[in-house]
Amino acid sequence: MSENIDELIEKERQEARNVCDTQGGTSKECAAAWDAVEELQAEAAHKKQQPAKSSFEVYCDNNPEAAECRVYDD
Fold first, then answer.
1. Taking the complete model, does pTM exceed 0.85, yes or no?
2. Minimal CA–CA distance to 31: which of 14, 16, 11, 13?
3. How many CA atoms lie within 13 A of 24 on its CB side?
4. DSSP code for 27
5. CB distance 16 to 36 below 8 Å
6. Domain-by-domain residue ranges, the chain?
7. Which residues, in sequence order, are CB contacts of 13 under 8 Å at separation 6+?
8. 33 CB burial (10 A radius; 0-12, 13-18, 19+)
């Protein structure tokens, strides 16, 4: 995906405004268009809450067989 989430949100907002202008503010289409905006905003908020992985975590994701990445059960 070449666009970031903020650009997608803005595009969906514009689309929702257009739909509501043509279909009416109380139409099902208008409500659905704004629901799509809200879903993207929720996804953006969720991504901001996730902490970034450390370099070591990225290394272990890429090299799970490495000795330093092994996990032992007690």
1. no
2. 16
3. 3
4. S
5. yes
6. 5-69
7. 37
8. buried
